[in-house]
Input
Amino acid sequence: MNRSAIDLWVGIFVAIGFGAIIFLALKVGNLVTLDSTPGYHLDASFDNIGGLKLRAPVKAAGVVVGRVDRVRFDPNMYRAIVTMSVDQGYQFSKDTIASVLTSGLLGEVYIGLDAGGDTQMLADGGMVTKTQSAVVLEKLIGQFLFDKAGTPGEAK
Output
């Protein structure tokens, strides 16, 4: 092989490497998805959403069934309103519980849906009324410390 052919192949491999790095960066940031299944939108209201981001997964029984479309603050109720896009193939009952969960101690934050037993299903634009907010580790540690410090007469 001559020198120009080697330079050409090195250039091709470098370009493929840069493309792969950009693709992985977009995939990790949930900015690109390869599926474009149509879906319907559900809203849920939370006291605290922790570190929930746009395009975060919506899971049911560990399976990704949708993505977070929008997060906004309701100034009247002082709560976060999360709009989720759920794939059309998955239907959830009106008494579904939406929870803000974390996979692992430092893992991704996602919405977990636990279906109830109601026979009526949520429609497009429906509201999930039963929600469980994110568990904030700092609050738990603070409550634990203040509870221990506030109990008089106990040996420490």
